[in-house]
Design brief:
Chains A, B: InterPro entries: HotDog_dom_sf, YiiD_C. Chains A, B: This is Thioesterase domain-containing protein, putative. The structure is a homodimer of 157-residue chains. With 157 residues, the first copy, chain A, is α+β, with helices and mostly antiparallel strands. Chain A has a single domain, classed as Roll (Thiol Ester Dehydrase, Chain A), CATH 3.10.129. Helix content of chain A is 36%, strand content 37%. Chain A contains 4 helices and 6 strands, in the order ααββαββαββ. A 6-stranded antiparallel sheet of chain A has the order 1-2-4-5-6-3. In chain A, strand 5 and strand 6 form a beta hairpin. The relative contact order of chain A is 0.18.
Chain lengths: 157, 157
């Protein structure tokens, strides 16, 4: 998928926010490859930072990168809706199917319906929950899935 | 709980193995505080490496540290049983209850029965699965739980 100039700027901006506020995103060597309404793609190399004892991707790095994909996607949704809210992960289930060999690619998307309901809930109740499924692949294909529940609440300021 | 000299050596040895083989354990600033048959305790500071945008512990760091507690505990079990096997995480569900403010403390234990069944399965079938629950706390108390499924298989050498 080709990114527009605005999408490239938004991806670079989110990458900057992650690097400035979550130091782990730097040690994970994370790149925000693309970002647009309802979809995101993050990538990181396996070696040298994210390797495990078997020479494949460390389970914790796979989790961290996929959690930042889900969080980054919804953080961007809130920005687009011009809502200032705290956004946290309340729960996640990750399933590893096959080892990830070369590159950790985390992709997530949400439908417009799901996005609209989330924003409406948050505006009405001051809080809202949303489930995001992140597909994690390497060059060979789909290797793991992380299903995360995110919780947003209006800042009490 | 007071550690014996052997337990302190075993803890130091596991910490060395983690640092040498999983670079993330260094950036997580992980310490193996105690290790003995059936129980482990890992710790890491929140700031500066494991902080998030809210100034509390990053969800990915909490996951990584708790996954290394589960993995380290069973890696040690395999060493004690003198079994050479590959050990991986196949699935995990993490629930975050409250933010972790100062220190990430990950503790896991397994009963002797569970340990014995796991080792017997592995010896009989060349593979075995085990569920480990990791309790994650900070100085104020229990804040999150990670329930991991580990899979061991004999090395084909």
């Amino acid at each position: 998928m080709i990114s527009t100039l605005t999408e490239m700027q938004d991806a670079a901006e989110l990458e900057y926010v992650l690097q400035q506020t979550i130091p782990a995103s730097k040690t994970l060597e994370l790149t925000v490859v693309s970002l647009a309404s309802g979809r995101i793609r993050l990538e990181a190399p396996v070696a040298p930072s994210n390797v495990n004892i078997h020479g494949t991707a460390f389970a914790g790095s796979i989790y961290s990168i996929s959690s930042l994909a889900a969080w980054g996607l919804i953080f961007y949704s809130l920005q687009e809706a011009m809502i200032i809210a705290d956004l946290v992960i309340s729960e996640a289930t990750i399933r590893y199917r096959h080892p990830i060999v070369d590159r950790i690619i985390a992709e997530a998307s949400i439908t417009e319906d799901k996005h609209d309901r989330f924003i409406a809930d948050l505006e009405k109740n001051g809080k809202a929950r949303l489930v995001v499924e992140v597909k994690i692949s390497d060059e060979a294909g789909h290797q793991a899935t992380n299903t995360l529940t995110l919780f947003a609440s209006n800042k009490t300021q």
